[in-house]
């Protein structure tokens, strides 16, 4: 995938997250660092909709794997775009360890925003995206200061 196609795909997914936030969650996303707190609220609600345990999966219909992947693409792209806009960085068509998803180079480090979003959706608040962003921001600042 060439750079222009990758950028267009990422923008499309990120804008889908903005529309989802507005139309479904009734919240606004503006690509600010603070908007990641809103993403946290949206993904926490989504995480809570996932059925837990084998018995609950039989009784409760939660989001399908396809729906989870769609949320992952949307909010992973949104996270990556917030990172790119505020910390710098460039999207790469593939992450070296996960070639099926795009990666991003930030401050010389390869990251995987889509994987972070998936982990947040599936694992819950322990994979907090705002905390991840703050840690990454501190790492980038340390690299710049050297």
Task: Explain how this protein is built.
By secondary structure, the chain is mainly alpha-helical. The chain is built from six helices and three strands; from the N terminus they run ααααβββαα. The protein has a single domain (3-145), classed as Up-down Bundle (Four Helix Bundle (Hemerythrin (Met), subunit A)), CATH 1.20.120. It has helices spanning 3-23, 35-48, 53-59, 65-87, 113-123, 129-145, and strands spanning 90-92, 103-106, 109-111. It has a three-stranded antiparallel sheet. A hairpin with a 2-residue loop joins β2 and β3 (109-111). 29% of the residues are buried.
Spatial strand order of the main sheet: 1-2-3
Looking at the structure, what is the overall shape? globular
Distance between the first and last residues' Cα: 34 Å
**Count of structural domains:** 1
CATH class: Mainly Alpha
The chain-level mean pLDDT equals 91
Q: What is the correct CATH architecture?
A: Up-down Bundle
What low-confidence regions span 5 or more consecutive residues with pLDDT below 50?
none
Strands, count:
3
* Count of DSSP-assigned helices: 6
Q: Could you describe the largest sheet, including whether it forms a barrel? A: 3 strands, antiparallel
As for the CATH topology, it is Four Helix Bundle (Hemerythrin (Met), subunit A)
Question: What proportion strand?
Answer: 5-15%
SS-derived structural category = mainly alpha
Order of helices and strands: HHHHEEEHH
């Amino acid at each position: 995938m060439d750079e222009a196609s990758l950028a267009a795909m990422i923008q499309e997914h990120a804008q889908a997250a903005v529309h989802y936030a507005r139309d479904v969650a009734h919240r606004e996303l503006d690509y600010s660092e603070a908007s990641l707190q809103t993403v946290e609220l949206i993904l926490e609600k989504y995480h809570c909709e996932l059925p837990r345990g084998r018995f609950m999966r039989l009784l409760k219909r939660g989001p399908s794997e396809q729906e989870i992947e769609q949320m992952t693409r949307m909010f992973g792209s949104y996270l990556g775009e917030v990172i790119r806009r505020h910390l710098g960085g460039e999207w790469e068509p593939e992450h070296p360890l996960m070639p099926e998803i795009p990666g991003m180079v930030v401050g010389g480090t390869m990251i995987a925003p889509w994987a972070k979003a998936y982990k947040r959706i599936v694992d819950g608040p322990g994979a907090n995206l705002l905390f991840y962003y703050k840690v990454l921001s501190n790492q980038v600042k340390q690299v710049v200061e050297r």
